[in-house]
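Notes from the 1:1 (GR / supervisor)

We went over the backlog. Supervisor wanted to see one worked example end to end before approving the batch request, so GR pasted a single chain during the call. The sequence is below; no edits were made to it. Supervisor asked that the structure be written out right there so they could see what the output format looks like.
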Amino acid sequence: MNANVAIQVLPQVESTEEVIRIVDEVIAYIKSTGLNYYVGPSETAIEGDYDQLMEVIKNCQLIAVKAGAPKVSAYVKISFAPEGGVLTIDQKVTKHHQ
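Structure output shown during the call:
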Protein backbone atom coordinates (compact mmCIF):
# COMPACT_ATOMS: atom_id res chain seq x y z
CA MET A 1 0.00 0.00 0.00
CA ASN A 2 1.54 3.27 -1.08
CA ALA A 3 -1.38 5.68 -0.66
CA ASN A 4 -4.51 6.56 1.19
CA VAL A 5 -7.22 9.05 0.42
CA ALA A 6 -10.08 10.70 2.21
CA ILE A 7 -13.07 11.62 0.08
CA GLN A 8 -16.15 13.63 0.87
CA VAL A 9 -18.82 13.40 -1.83
CA LEU A 10 -21.41 16.18 -1.79
CA PRO A 11 -24.31 15.55 -4.17
CA GLN A 12 -26.10 18.75 -5.14
CA VAL A 13 -29.69 17.66 -4.54
CA GLU A 14 -32.76 19.19 -2.93
CA SER A 15 -33.22 17.18 0.28
CA THR A 16 -31.13 15.78 3.09
CA GLU A 17 -32.75 12.40 2.50
CA GLU A 18 -31.51 12.43 -1.10
CA VAL A 19 -27.99 13.37 0.03
CA ILE A 20 -27.96 10.44 2.46
CA ARG A 21 -29.36 8.01 -0.12
CA ILE A 22 -26.80 8.98 -2.74
CA VAL A 23 -23.87 8.99 -0.31
CA ASP A 24 -24.96 5.54 0.88
CA GLU A 25 -24.72 4.33 -2.72
CA VAL A 26 -21.21 5.77 -2.99
CA ILE A 27 -20.20 4.03 0.25
CA ALA A 28 -21.68 0.76 -1.01
CA TYR A 29 -19.47 1.13 -4.10
CA ILE A 30 -16.40 1.75 -1.92
CA LYS A 31 -17.23 -1.38 0.11
CA SER A 32 -17.50 -3.38 -3.13
CA THR A 33 -13.92 -2.52 -4.13
CA GLY A 34 -12.49 -4.78 -1.42
CA LEU A 35 -10.13 -2.02 -0.27
CA ASN A 36 -9.70 -1.19 3.39
CA TYR A 37 -11.85 1.83 4.25
CA TYR A 38 -13.20 3.77 7.22
CA VAL A 39 -16.46 5.73 7.11
CA GLY A 40 -16.36 8.87 9.22
CA PRO A 41 -19.04 11.49 9.79
CA SER A 42 -17.74 13.82 7.07
CA GLU A 43 -15.52 11.71 4.81
CA THR A 44 -14.46 8.18 4.00
CA ALA A 45 -10.81 7.11 4.15
CA ILE A 46 -9.61 4.42 1.75
CA GLU A 47 -6.17 2.84 1.44
CA GLY A 48 -4.43 0.96 -1.36
CA ASP A 49 -2.44 1.46 -4.52
CA TYR A 50 -2.35 5.05 -5.82
CA ASP A 51 -3.66 4.28 -9.32
CA GLN A 52 -6.45 2.11 -7.96
CA LEU A 53 -7.48 4.85 -5.52
CA MET A 54 -7.60 7.47 -8.28
CA GLU A 55 -10.00 5.21 -10.18
CA VAL A 56 -12.14 4.83 -7.06
CA ILE A 57 -12.26 8.62 -6.59
CA LYS A 58 -13.42 9.07 -10.18
CA ASN A 59 -16.03 6.34 -9.83
CA CYS A 60 -17.41 7.80 -6.59
CA GLN A 61 -18.49 10.88 -8.49
CA LEU A 62 -19.91 8.85 -11.38
CA ILE A 63 -21.88 6.67 -8.93
CA ALA A 64 -23.38 9.80 -7.35
CA VAL A 65 -24.48 11.10 -10.76
CA LYS A 66 -25.89 7.71 -11.74
CA ALA A 67 -27.81 7.69 -8.44
CA GLY A 68 -29.52 10.94 -9.39
CA ALA A 69 -27.28 13.87 -8.47
CA PRO A 70 -27.25 16.40 -11.31
CA LYS A 71 -24.05 17.89 -9.89
CA VAL A 72 -21.43 16.59 -7.46
CA SER A 73 -18.70 18.26 -5.47
CA ALA A 74 -15.95 16.16 -3.94
CA TYR A 75 -13.22 17.05 -1.51
CA VAL A 76 -10.24 14.72 -1.63
CA LYS A 77 -7.13 14.42 0.51
CA ILE A 78 -4.29 12.24 -0.76
CA SER A 79 -1.31 10.79 1.08
CA PHE A 80 1.14 9.16 -1.34
CA ALA A 81 4.55 7.59 -0.82
CA PRO A 82 5.72 5.99 -4.07
CA GLU A 83 8.82 4.44 -2.49
CA GLY A 84 7.34 3.35 0.79
CA GLY A 85 4.27 3.04 2.90
CA VAL A 86 1.96 5.62 4.39
CA LEU A 87 0.33 5.55 7.79
CA THR A 88 -2.58 3.14 7.71
CA ILE A 89 -6.11 3.89 8.80
CA ASP A 90 -5.58 1.63 11.82
CA GLN A 91 -2.41 3.47 12.81
CA LYS A 92 -4.25 6.77 12.63
CA VAL A 93 -7.51 5.99 14.44
CA THR A 94 -7.44 2.75 16.44
CA LYS A 95 -6.16 4.33 19.64
CA HIS A 96 -9.07 6.78 19.54
CA HIS A 97 -11.75 4.08 19.26
CA GLN A 98 -10.86 1.71 22.10
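Supervisor's comment: Strands lie at 3-11, 36-39, 44-48, 72-80.
Batch request approved.
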